[in-house]
């Protein structure tokens, strides 16, 4: 079986070497590059399954790279940030990163994050013989098997893997107040860490895509001290 190919975009040679060693020791194939231009060349060759992206890069910075990648592809992206870069972490998640780890990072945590994202990405290509039926809400349609969301006009709306899983969890539990902890359990077995701390940002991104006015959401409502509730009626498609 081919090893999953992880591309690390990191200009610090020592950190890049550490990343490569950690990934190789845990069964991945690793490529490391130091700039966006080098990243583009590797991606053009194909076969990359996930990008570990440092925000502080020479030339085109990591936030710009993340925005550009997300506009072109749904490839999973894990940002690597300095501990003090809270604003950058939030902005990175808002423009499409799936998760983040902070420097100095824990290698076991990074590997766990990568495996979790690869599992979700693999689910998008594993439509079994008994396809789960799609779900409809307020004119929208979400297809769990194809992992696609279509707006009322039939236009496909791009979602990251985390965004898709969160929206699907809401659609499967309409009218129920879901805490952040419950959403984590529904989405990927309750793992904790960066995704838990950034779940509000992912939900904000979903609102940007499905709400008429994201500042006054009608479909995904915040419940004070409770979590979130999905208000539309949901029907089998």
Task: Explain this structure.
The protein is an alpha/beta fold. It has two domains: 5-123, Rossmann fold, CATH 3.40.50; 135-236, Arc Repressor Mutant, subunit A, CATH 1.10.10. It is built from nine helices and 13 strands. The chain has helices spanning 13-25, 36-45, 62-72, 86-94, 107-123, 161-172, 180-188, 194-197, 199-210, and strands spanning 5-9, 29-33, 50-54, 77-82, 99-103, 135-137, 140-143, 148-150, 156-157, 177-178, 220-223, 227-230, 234-236. Strands 2-1-3-4-5 form a five-stranded parallel beta sheet, with helices on both faces. A hairpin with a 5-residue loop joins β8 and β9. The radius of gyration is 18 Å and the shape is globular. The N and C termini lie far apart (37 Å).
């Amino acid at each position: 079986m081919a090893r999953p190919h992880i591309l690390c975009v990191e200009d610090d040679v020592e950190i890049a070497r550490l990343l490569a060693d950690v990934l190789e020791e845990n069964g991945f194939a690793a490529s490391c590059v130091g700039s966006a231009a080098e990243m583009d060349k590797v991606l053009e060759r194909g076969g990359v399954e996930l990008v570990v992206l440092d925000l502080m890069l020479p030339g085109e910075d990591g936030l710009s790279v993340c925005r550009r990648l997300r506009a072109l592809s749904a490839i999973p992206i894990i940002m690597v940030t300095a501990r003090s870069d809270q604003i950058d972490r939030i902005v990175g998640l808002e423009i499409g990163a799936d998760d983040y780890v902070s420097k100095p990072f824990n290698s076991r945590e990074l590997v766990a994050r990568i495996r979790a994202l690869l599992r979700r990405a693999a689910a998008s290509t594993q439509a079994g013989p008994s396809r789960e039926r799609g779900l409809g809400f307020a004119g929208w349609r979400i297809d769990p098997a194809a992992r696609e969301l279509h707006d009322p006009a039939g236009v496909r709306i791009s979602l990251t893997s985390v965004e898709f899983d969160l929206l699907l969890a809401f659609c499967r539990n309409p009218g129920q107040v879901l805490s952040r902890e419950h959403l984590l359990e529904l989405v990927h077995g309750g793992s904790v860490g960066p995704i838990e701390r950034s779940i509000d940002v992912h939900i904000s991104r979903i609102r940007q895509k499905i709400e008429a006015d994201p500042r006054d959401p009608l479909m995904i409502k915040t419940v004070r001290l409770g979590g979130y509730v999905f208000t539309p009626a949901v029907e089998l498609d």
